[in-house]
Amino acid sequence: MKRIKIIGGGLAGPEAALQAAAQGCLVDLYEMRPTRSTEAHQTSDFAELVCSNSLKSESENTAPWLLKQEMRQAGSFLLREADATAVPAGHALAVDRVLFSQRVATLLESNPKITIHREEVTTLEESDPDTITILASGPLTSPALAAELQRLTGADHLAFYDSISPIVDATTIDMEKVYFAARYDKGTADYINCPFTKEEYDRFLDALTTAEALPAKSWEQIPTPDSRLTTHNSPVHYFEGCLPIEETARRGRDTLRFGPMKPVGLTDPKTGRWPYAVVQLRQENLRADSYNLVGFQNHLKFGEQKRVLSLIPGLENATFLRYGQIHRNTYIHAPSLLTETLQLRSHPTILIAGQLSGVEGYTESIASGMLAGRYAAALAQGLTPEPAPRQSANGSLSHYITHAESKRFQPANITFDLLPPLEEELRKKIRDKKERHKLQCDRALAAWNSWLATSPAAFRALPTTI
Ligand SMILES: Cc1cc2nc3c(=O)[nH]c(=O)nc-3n(C[C@H](O)[C@H](O)[C@H](O)COP(=O)(O)OP(=O)(O)OC[C@H]3O[C@@H](n4cnc5c(N)ncnc54)[C@H](O)[C@@H]3O)c2cc1C
């Protein structure tokens, strides 16, 4: 049987290691901390939660609950430790982070099939016939390893940044100037549209393209495949779908009007015509008390954002609850690189798990580690891994990262949008959203359990007491 090499002792890596070991495989787990740390980690612990301590909702029939239920039924080790170290947090599963990490460390260190190596991995041996590799080095993958991944996958297939759009307080939007509409009146009119005249657009564009950007922090410098070192002034690499708005604007005076500020099909009821350009605002939460500016991720100083975004008709006196930001997040272009069993298409003995694979969030990262560990174990035993079923939350996440629209690919949390919709007939019959979600959850759990029961040995649900 082949050995399994796992790079990364965060969330995905330890789960993968425990899963593969439980299937009888010998595992080498590599973690570079404390020899080398990242800009977010504070400790050298396994399974460190770098920011909040929440693994999201436990409310029945929500998407995060569904994902966790599936993981519990499949015997996720880290989720079991999360349950055991839960602290009161209303409807969410929040954990005592220190205890959680300690318990994961105990599981890893006491497992005779797992050998722990505290060292940075800087090379990937794609043609080693005796090893299956799981790369789970996370959003802050060390520069040398990122460069190595670029060598294997091509420079255009690794992103180093992720971006978020500004959010505005709904009560501060001037509703006299804006209007609700769906493009070409298709679907419900959920978006608020801020219409521009040509003069307003020109003024806005001038302000946007000359606004001051935030200086790059030292850790924002990009590793290059050639030098394996970070270099100053190298161009920041974004996927096309999530370019900062100021970058798009610099490509030509009409680029925004034909891109994120496209007015076609958005008839302004005041004029009966399409405006020159629009900014669309999308509801941020169910209470509809805040909206995000669609496609307006940016890297400008906060004061500059306030000045420039206040030139948008309707937002002159708006209160911004959050400004746009770009943050470090290394992830691969999974739609072109990965199979549904998380293997690199070009190098099938290398699997990618966790945030690096394009999932977003603690629970999602653990879930993808769980699958990767089992797929790797199957490969190590000469079996062909069978992907998680499309109807399940786990399968839907894998399906999203491997089938998302290529140009706009961005990491995703689990949501009902990723699950296949209910059949047309049922959708028409059941109007209540909660009821629909319950049906989607029932369907997902049925598919998941039948997959666990019938897949090859490597996928059998493990007893929860292992
Ligand atoms: C600053 C920040 C805050 C976040 N906050 C949240 C949050 O609040 N809630 C949430 O749900 N998600 C959050 N995330 C997103 C994500 O859920 C976490 O990053 C999560 O830890 C990802 O799990 P992972 O296993 O993929 O990566 P990680 O947990 O980061 O684990 C990767 C491990 O690989 C190690 N490593 C890296 N390179 C090498 C190498 N060359 N050799 C050996 N080891 C290496 C790292 O030291 C690290 O321990 C946050 C991300 C960041 C960057």
Task: Provide a descriptive summary of the structure in words.
By secondary structure, the protein is an alpha+beta fold. The protein has 2 domains: 3-162 and 329-459, FAD/NAD(P)-binding domain (3-Layer(bba) Sandwich); 166-323, Elongation Factor Tu (Ef-tu), domain 3 (Beta Barrel). It is 31% helix and 16% strand. It has helices at 12-22, 63-74, 77-84, 97-109, 143-153, 198-210, 245-249, 302-309, 334-337, 362-380, 393-403, 424-429, 433-454, and strands at residues 3-7, 27-30, 54-57, 86-87, 92-95, 114-117, 131-135, 158-164, 167-169, 179-181, 191-196, 222-223, 230-231, 277-283, 290-293, 320-322, 325-332, 350-352. The strands form 5 sheets. Strands 10-11-14-15-9-16 form a 6-stranded antiparallel sheet. It has a 5-stranded parallel sheet with strand order 6-2-1-7-18, with helices on one face. A 3-stranded antiparallel sheet has the order 3-5-4. Strand 4 (86-87) and strand 5 (92-95) form a beta hairpin. The longest helix has 22 residues, at 433-454. The relative contact order is 0.17. The model is unreliable at 218-235 and 460-466 (pLDDT under 50). The protein binds flavin-adenine dinucleotide. Flavin-adenine dinucleotide is lined by residues 7-13, 30-33, 38, 40-41, 50-52, 120-121, 136-142, 145, 354-356, 361-362, 365.
